[in-house]
Design brief:
β2, α2 and β3 form a beta-alpha-beta unit. By secondary structure, this protein is α/β, with parallel strands linked by helices. The relative contact order is 0.15. The longest helix is centred in the first third of the chain and has 15 residues. It has eleven helices and 18 strands. The strands form four sheets. Strands 1, 2, 3, 4, 6, 7, 8, 9, 10 and 11 form a ten-stranded mixed beta sheet that branches. A four-stranded mixed beta sheet has the order 13-15-17-18, covered by helices on one side. A two-stranded antiparallel ribbon has the order 5-12.
Length: about 350
Amino acid sequence: MPKSNTYGLILAGGRGTRFWPRSRTRTPKQLIPFTGANSLLQDTVERLHPILPPERIWILTNSYLRDAIRKQLPDVPRHQIIAEPDQRNTAPCLGLAAHLIKAADPSAVLGVFPADHHIGDPKKFRGFVKAAFRAAAGRKLVTIGVQPRWAETGYGYLEFPAGMTPGSKEPYALRSFREKPKLPVAKRYVREGRFFWNAGMFFWRADVFLESLRCYLPKTALLIASLPGKPGAALDRRLRQVYPLCENISVDYAVMEKAALAGEVSGLASGDFGWSDLGSWNAVYELLDRDGDGNVFRGDTLTHSAAGCFVDGAGKTVALVGVKNLVVVDTPDALLIADRERAQDVGQIVKMLEKQGRKGLL
């Protein structure tokens, strides 16, 4: 069991544009149930509960979602649900969280968890989380790599040293972070066996991460250090002034890639615990049970010579005839029909709506 100075930080501020029209600005994908009765955010908190009780959970989100998250997570202290006034990517928000949690507990060790992941084997997952917390008790920045199940071009990769043992709970010194590769490179990564998916889960002492931020992103670190250390009205006022001045950059680019080259990052080469980042409707399709024709239905659906389709019918009967590999998502004000293989492109529709100023559909 992790010690009482361990904390979970859940990132829940994204928009989930690739899940339009179900995911909207005020009801993004992390607040929606996809695979059961709970939302993705509720599932994230629930699978951490055996090792991190609600009083040691912090949530980073935005002002649109804070009240909805408080309703979904009544056991998490209200003051630990922090709203960013502006989206500045993960480096500033993780600096903000480390600043606040360190002020509350100078010995704090943080685990960072995105709110929109699916974990098929929570017990196995928690075993690696506990190992990562132990590794982060020193001065290393720690991350968990997920053993790849196929040559994925949509994920970044972590490069482990030669001779590493997949599934080991011992930390290895990471050699590098690799950006999303082209398919031939992704296939080589899988063949070599020492490149693991970067799942965006990080572990570190709050003070150690703030030192790294001062080293690799000094302007943002200085701005974060100027903030009050306690949640409340004073922090909210100052945050509105300071936060938009922070660099808009991910923690991978700003800190982790540089720290890995300096030998400051350790990684756990986890075995398969059923991880998925649920990046598109196709990812949801892959998780759910399918009928004999490979279809997934949510709602009343009739088919004739239809195969490989995903339908979310929103309370009406949907009929499919002679079609294959479609995503059909119906809401009261919008209908999405997409090739399942092109589900990643749904976010382009949201960009078009933004350009057209059609806020009612966002």
